[in-house]
Design a protein that fits this description.
The structure is a single chain. This protein has 14 helices and 14 strands. Helix 5 links the parallel strand 7 and strand 8. The strands form 4 sheets. A 5-stranded parallel sheet has the order 2-1-10-12-14, with helices on both faces. Strands 5-6-7-8-9 form a 5-stranded mixed sheet, sandwiched between helices. The chain starts with a strand and ends with a helix. It has 338 residues and is an alpha/beta fold.
Length: 338
């Protein structure tokens, strides 16, 4: 039997490749005759760079860019032919800040513009941009302030993103996501004013009104900046990753698919990796093996063949996130499928 192992990362714990490796070990122990195919996945957020390079091949240059507070930080991007893979969190992500440093009034996306310029100078003209995990809510103002960025010509941009939030408004990036990034109610009003003014400037310079475009609010408004200045097209993050991995061909003769993520709940059904896998598997049964399971009934109703929780409920979070413990628990959970 052919078994496809197609998980997302268990964030703050294991990469998607490490999760797939733990799954494969479990399968070998209980089903040594099975053929396993590891296919680590991502949906445009953290881990997308490695996953896409695994599909496309290429190199990972390292450049020094500005972190959200303007400090120099090394950041990787991918190059495959004339295609650049940019994971914006590498330059303006939460992981670059300590909890007490998180302040969307101050955090800037400038490092993203510096990554774009580095890739452009290397000859890249097609950009796959993973939007997610940002500590910023500046509408791309920091990115656009990098000298030369607005003058980039003859480039095409695909935004890997499953967020439909507009640039401004009640469902816009500020009111929905800024509080999660450390904004107070007063900060939210200031940020909304900034975004409204920035949208007007973008329209004056490009003719594009980003205020209510679906996805323009992704990654703190970076989506809108990419749409306005380079005509970026928003695509499903997991859909694009599966396409580049030729996933449909790989699963055609599979007997089982095992996917998973750090936490599965109702949000999983809004475009995250496991649901994307479920939508592209035809009649092949899909098992969901995730660190924490909430809304089990909804997940089962969506069509998952099995839903298995990795971390015991009585296990403290700090222990559950220990990589060695997580690997052990993943192996144990996968074994229950057999």
């Amino acid at each position: 039997m052919k078994i496809i192992l197609a998980p997302d990362s268990f964030k703050e714990c294991l990469t998607a490749a490490q999760v797939a490796q733990a799954m494969a070990q479990a399968v070998r122990e209980v089903c040594p005759w099975a053929q396993t195919v590891s296919m680590p996945l991502a949906d445009g957020g953290e881990g997308t760079l490695e996953v896409l390079l695994g599909a496309l091949g290429g190199v990972q240059p390292v450049v020094t860019v500005s972190d959200p507070l303007g400090r120099p930080v090394p950041a990787q991007y991918g190059v495959s032919g004339n295609t650049a893979i940019i994971e914006v969190a590498r330059a303006c992500g939460f992981s670059l800040l300590r909890p007490e440093e998180r302040n969307p009034l101050l955090a800037s996306s400038r490092g993203v513009g510096e990554l774009l310029m580095a890739a452009y100078r290397r000859g890249c003209r097609h950009f796959l941009v993973g939007l997610g995990g940002t500590a910023t809510c500046d509408g791309g103002a920091g990115m656009l302030a990098v000298p030369g960025v607005k003058d980039l010509k003859d480039i095409s941009v695909e935004l890997l993103c499953d967020v439909d939030a507009p640039f401004v408004g009640l469902t816009g990036t500020v009111r929905v996501f800024a509080p999660q990034k450390g904004a107070s109610p007063e900060d939210v009003e200031v940020l909304e004013e900034r975004m409204t003014a920035l949208a007007a400037l973008m329209q004056a310079e490009t003719g594009v009104d980003v205020r209510f475009l679906p996805g323009a609010g992704a990654a703190g408004g970076l989506g809108g900046a990419f749409m306005a200045y380079w005509g970026a097209r928003k695509v499903s993050g997991i859909g694009k990753v599966l396409e580049l991995h030729h996933f449909s061909d790989a699963v055609a003769d599979a007997g089982l698919i095992i996917t998973g993520e750090g936490r599965s709940d109702a949000q999983t059904l809004l475009g995250k990796v496991p649901f994307g896998v479920l939508q592209h598997t035809g009649n092949v049964p899909v098992a969901l093996v995730s660190g924490r399971i909430e809304n089990r009934a909804e997940l089962e109703a969506a069509g998952f063949h099995s839903v298995v929780e990795v971390s015991p409920r009585n296990l403290p979070l700090c222990e559950a996130l220990d990589p060695s413990i997580a690997r052990h628990n993943i192996r144990s959970a996968v074994k229950t499928l057999f």
